[in-house]
Design a protein that fits this description.
The complex is a heterodimer of chains A (about 270) and B (about 220). Chain A has about 270 residues and is mainly beta. Helix content of chain A is about 5%, strand content about 45%. Chain A has two helices and 17 strands. The two termini of chain A are about 15 Å apart. The C terminus of chain A is likely disordered. By secondary structure, chain B is an all-alpha fold. Helices cover about 65% and strands about 0% of the residues of chain B. Chain B has one domain: Urease accessory protein UreF (Orthogonal Bundle). Chain B starts with a helix and ends in a 10-residue tail after the last helix. The chains are: A mainly beta (about 270), B mainly alpha (about 220).
Chain lengths: ~270, ~220
């Protein structure tokens, strides 16, 4: 399956954000959600088919113009599944950010037998702001991890700020050893430019790391996604949303992380 | 190339301060993730496949195109999110350049027409420049860098866990074929643009290094 999704967010003349392009193809469907009163726009990724499956070639292009603010979330985890013998499934994400982009999707789950590669390239213009989160769960409950590779490049003002690759599964030597993920089956990273508004709860499995350029990385590793969320969610969710409780303000699909379904599973 | 020159550069007794670093092992021992010989093997395999591959690729690239050392150095900054690891890598790069000054001269492309050779860079870049200065080839720089990414942690394991040094060296021998494979991969990519060079990260080494840096008492600098 091949699909292209495009989102272009631009500042309107009333201090808000309008989406001048919002286009997707199954399984990468995009929907505008949330109210239109605030300064920013929110888009949810809604899957239109199971997967990604082997052989899928998906591409997502995001542009956030100066003065615009866009938040991208997904309604369910992305479940990479095995399929017929075919090249690895591939998701290529390219974002150009002059305004503010918050990329906060649900985790990628590498189901046993999958072979998946996510390649991310983000160009942040000088003065642009970014929150870029990637959570990965290595296998569904009590199953071995499939093969998944994440290749991430984040650039700021024309210089590479963060370059990171992570491979898990049979073809990634030593990935479950104590140098990489140890016994952890979930890992999450968030890159924030210029930095985080929130703070990281003290945890032996997480750290906040100022990058050499502008920006900060938060990384968390845990036995499952709950520990990763406990560490990273407070950094990513603005105080307004979290006020007056914690779980209750999260959308219902955030309450049961392990019950996540494949993008697009009807 | 001279095989003996390669051995001099790859020798763990090169006085470049490597003995002061455990390559992240001390933090993982303290966290209870490394307890015995099998854990040390799993640690070394993961380190070789991630940081070892990156070090080998940057050493090979710096050896192949020394004039680009500053771009390569920035590439390692982007691949080393943990400030404690950037500091450790730069400290070891400085120590290596200092030791190297009395061994070989750096490639002419690195030394400005007027002024002194750079003294501040990440260890793999310094390693590649020194290899070029010694007349070695990128593949040789890569094999020595990949090997060097495991030996420091291995000898630290003997001290931290009181393991049998023979058994620990047995692990290094078992890893040698993988070292060769990684070095060949790294050398093949030594002409790639900096952004395309390997970037395999090790989340637990990053997290461990940041926690380790806050300890008041520790045996190793990193």
């Amino acid at each position: 399956m091949r699909a292209l999704a495009q989102v272009v967010a631009e500042a309107d003349d009333r201090g808000g954000t309008r989406l001048t392009v919002l286009r997707g193809e199954s399984p990468l469907l995009v929907r505008r959600t949330g109210g239109r009163s605030g300064p920013g726009a929110t888009v949810h990724l809604v899957g239109g088919a199971a997967g990604p499956l082997r052989g899928d070639d998906l591409r997502m292009e995001i542009t956030v113009g100066a003065g615009a603010a866009l938040t991208v979330r997904s309604v369910a985890a992305q479940l990479a599944l095995p399929g017929r013998p075919a090249p690895p499934s591939r998701l290529t994400i390219h974002a150009e950010v002059a305004g503010t982009l918050r990329w906060l999707p649900e985790p990628l789950i590498a189901a046993a037998g999958c072979d998946h590669c996510t390649e991310t390239r983000v160009e942040v213009a000088e003065g642009g702001e970014l929150l870029w989160r990637d959570d990965l769960v290595c296998g569904r409950h009590a199953e071995p991890s499939g093969d998944a590779r994440l290749e991430t490049t984040i650039r700021y003002a024309g210089r590479t700020l963060y370059r990171h690759a992570l491979g898990v599964g049979r073809h990634a030597d030593g990935w479950d050893g104590p140098a990489v993920l140890g016994g952890g089956r979930a890992v999450g990273t968030v890159v924030a430019v210029p930095g985080f508004a929130g703070s990281l709860p003290a945890s032996a499995g997480a750290a906040l790391m100022p990058l050499a350029g502008p920006g900060v990385l938060a990384t968390a590793v845990g036995p499952d996604i709950r520990q990763v969320r406990a560490a990273l969610d407070p950094l990513c969710e603005p105080v307004e949303e979290a006020r007056g409780g914690n779980e209750s303000t999260l959308p219902p699909w955030r309450a049961e992380p392990q019950a996540a379904t494949a993008i697009g599973t009807p | 190339m001279s095989l003996a020159t390669l051995l001099v550069l790859a020798d763990g007794r090169l006085p470049a301060g490597g003995h002061a670093h455990s390559g992240g092992l001390e933090a993982q021992v303290a966290a209870g993730r490394v307890k015995d010989l099998a854990d040390v093997y799993a640690f070394l395999r993961g380190k070789l496949a991630t940081g070892g591959l990156v070090a080998a690729a940057f050493a090979a690239a710096a050896c192949a195109r020394p004039a680009e050392w500053a771009e390569l150095d920035a590439g390692l900054d982007a691949r080393t999110p943990a400030p404690a690891l950037r500091k450790a890598s730069r400290a070891q790069g400085r120590a290596l350049l200092r030791a190297g000054r009395s061994m070989w001269s750096l490639p002419a492309a690195v030394v400005p027409a007027s002024g002194t050779a750079p003294r501040e860079m990440h260890q793999p870049v310094a390693f590649g420049l020194l290899a070029a200065g010694a007349g070695l080839r990128p593949h040789e720089a890569a094999v020595a860098a990949a090997h060097g990414s495991t030996t420091g942690s291995a000898s630290a394991a003997v001290r931290l866990l009181g393991l049998d040094p023979f058994a620990v060296h047995g692990l290094l021998a078992r890893l040698a074929p993988e070292c060769d494979r990684i070095a060949a991969d790294a050398a093949n990519r030594s002409a790639d643009p900096v952004d395309d060079l390997p970037a395999a990260g090790s989340p637990l080494l990053d997290i461990g290094a940041e926690h380790h840096a806050t300890w008041e008492v520790r045996l190793f600098a990193s």
